[in-house]
Amino acid sequence: MWWHDRPGGEPFWAVTTQEHARRIFADPYGFSSRAAGIRVRDRALLARVEPRQPRDVQPMIHTDPPRHNPLRKLVVRRFMPRSIAELEDMVRRFAAQTMADAADRGEVDFVTDIAHRVPAHVTFALLDVPESEWERLADLEHKTITNTDPELAGTDSDVAAAAGREVFGYFAGLVLERLEAPGDDLISGFIKGRIDGEALPLEQVVAEAGLLLAGGLDTTRAAASAGSTPNATI
């Protein structure tokens, strides 16, 4: 266990062993994701934001049992090995096109041009977001993490808040469309899903869509580019 007191930000404990991580994840009452959220805030945000209180509508990453598992089960089948295998052709197509585009340019930023693009394309496809909106939503999503991403340090937190509202507004409209004509995408999975026989509130579906966008664009981009050199010549 390591106490990280980062300059200008909110200090936190870093858990660095599997043994400790397993114990903590198995104890949601002692280590709640719901009570105070999971986001590490900078000094400016800490000064502006009132102490967080649990809300009724939270994406699954901000929930504890018994609420968490039923939410997760609504879409988990789409991430099982068999379902992932069915995506292979699509992923290969996105990857091949991404590499071809990078080769045409000769010099690329690996994080932006490779590590971001492939998982972003897959995520948007799973959410069935029109391709015309991909670039705009990706830009907005990156702005929402301005207070925690060193790449975006210095961006006004008001910009991040405005970007978050725009993403929420877009998904609110998309959820209403899927409510009328659900498909086989992840958003429709939440709409058609039931917990204790009841449909999810639409605000919950919007929150889950935003979570999937963040996980597919930012978390996956960071994992895919860990340890890489940003600029490379092909």
Please tell me the total number of domains: 2
Helix percentage: 40-55%
Instruction: Spell out the CATH superfamily of the largest domain.
Output: Cytochrome P450
Mean pLDDT: 84
Give the amount of beta strand, in percent: 5-15%
Radius of gyration: 19 Å
Q: If strands are numbered along the chain, what order do they take across the biggest sheet? A: 1-2
Anisotropy-based shape: globular
Query: Please, what is the oligomeric state?
Result: single chain
CATH architecture of the largest domain: Orthogonal Bundle
Low-confidence stretches: none
Give the C-level CATH assignment of the largest domain.
Mainly Alpha
The strand count comes to 6
Assign the CATH topology of the largest domain: Cytochrome p450
Structural class: mainly alpha
N-to-C series of helices and strands: EEHHHHHEHHHHHEEHE
In this structure, how is the largest beta sheet organized?
Answer: 2 strands, antiparallel
**Total number of helical segments?**
11
Q: Alpha-carbon distance between the termini?
A: 41 Å
Q: Could you walk me through the main structural features you see in this protein, from its secondary elements to its overall organization?
A:
- The chain has 234 residues and is mainly α.
- It has 11 helices and 6 strands.
- Helix 8 (134-144) packs across helix 9.
- The chain has 2 domains: 1-57, no CATH class; 74-233, Cytochrome P450 (Cytochrome p450, Orthogonal Bundle).
- The protein has helices at residues 18-25, 43-48, 68-73, 81-86, 88-105, 110-115, 117-127, 134-144, 157-180, 186-192, 202-224; strands at 2-4, 12-14, 107-109, 194-195, 198-199, 231-233.
- The strands form 3 sheets. A two-stranded antiparallel ribbon has the order 1-2. A two-stranded antiparallel sheet has the order 3-6. A two-stranded antiparallel sheet has the order 4-5.
- The chain is 54% helix and 7% strand.
- The model has no long low-confidence stretch (mean pLDDT 84).
- Strand 4 (194-195) and strand 5 form a beta hairpin.
